[in-house]
C-alpha cells in the first residue's frame, strides 16, 4: 500500500475531529468550504491508510467519582512472565493504561480510583499477581498536560 500523503485540508479535518470526534462531516465541510462528500472521502482514505483508527470518547472521571490517579511500576520475577501478568492486569478495570517498558520497571500502569483507600486496594491487586515481586507507586497531584493536537501539528509541520 502506498503511503498516504496528508495535505492541509486533511490536517484541518484531523484537527476538527481530534477536538470533537462526533462533529458532523457537514459542519467540517462548511468550515472548510468544501463538500461533505469530500470530507467523507478524505476521512475514508485516512481510515484505509490506518492514519485514523476508530474514534474515542473522553470521560470526565472526576465527575464519575474517580478523581484519584496513580502510576504503578511493576517489577517482575522474570520477563518471560510479562504476557501472563498483562493478562491479569487486563482483568483489573481500574488499570486504564499499561505499558511494557525498559529501565526501572517491567510494566508501568496508570490507575484510576475513587480515593486513596481504593487506590491502595488496586495497588495490592497488582502486587498480588503471580510473577510480580514488587510495585512502586506515584500519586498524580494534577494532570497538567493532556494535549492530542500539539503532536499532530508538529508531525504535520515536519512533513
Describe this structure in words.
With 159 residues, the chain is α+β, with helices and mostly antiparallel strands. The protein is 40% helix and 19% strand. The protein contains 6 helices and 4 strands. The longest helix has 13 residues. It is elongated, with a radius of gyration of 20 Å.
Q: Give the H and E element order.
A: HHHEHEEHEH
Largest sheet: 4 strands, antiparallel
Corresponding CATH superfamily of the largest domain: Lrp/AsnC effector binding domain/regulation of amino acid metabolism (RAM) domain
Using the 3D structure, state the CATH architecture of the largest domain: 2-Layer Sandwich
CATH topology of the largest domain: Alpha-Beta Plaits
Mean pLDDT: 93
Computed over alpha carbons, the radius of gyration is 20 Å
State the helix count: 6
CATH class of the largest domain: Alpha Beta
Shape: elongated
Class of secondary structure makeup: alpha+beta
Low-confidence stretches: none
Main β-sheet, spatial strand arrangement: 2-3-1-4
Alpha-carbon distance between the termini?
A: 19 Å
The percent range for strand residues is 15-25%
| Overall number of structural domains | 2
Number of strands: 4
Report helical residue fraction. 25-40%
Amino acid at each position: 500500500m502506498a503511503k498516504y500523503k496528508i495535505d492541509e485540508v486533511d490536517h484541518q479535518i484531523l484537527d476538527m475531529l481530534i477536538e470533537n470526534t462526533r462533529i458532523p462531516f457537514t459542519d467540517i465541510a462548511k468550515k472548510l468550504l468544501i463538500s461533505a462528500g469530500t470530507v467523507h472521502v478524505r476521512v475514508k482514505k485516512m481510515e484505509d491508510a490506518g492514519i485514523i483508527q476508530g474514534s474515542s470518547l473522553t470521560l470526565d472521571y472526576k465527575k464519575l467519582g474517580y478523581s484519584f490517579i496513580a502510576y504503578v511500576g511493576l517489577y517482575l520475577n522474570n520477563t518471560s512472565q510479562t504476557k501472563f501478568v498483562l493478562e491479569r492486569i487486563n482483568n483489573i478495570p481500574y488499570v486504564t493504561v499499561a505499558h511494557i517498558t525498559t529501565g526501572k520497571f517491567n510494566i508501568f500502569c496508570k490507575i484510576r480510583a475513587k480515593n486513596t483507600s481504593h487506590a491502595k486496594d488496586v495497588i495490592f491487586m497488582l502486587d498480588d499477581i503471580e510473577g510480580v515481586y514488587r510495585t512502586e507507586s506515584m500519586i498524580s497531584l494534577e494532570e497538567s498536560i493532556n494535549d492530542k493536537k500539539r503532536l499532530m501539528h508538529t508531525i504535520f509541520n515536519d512533513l
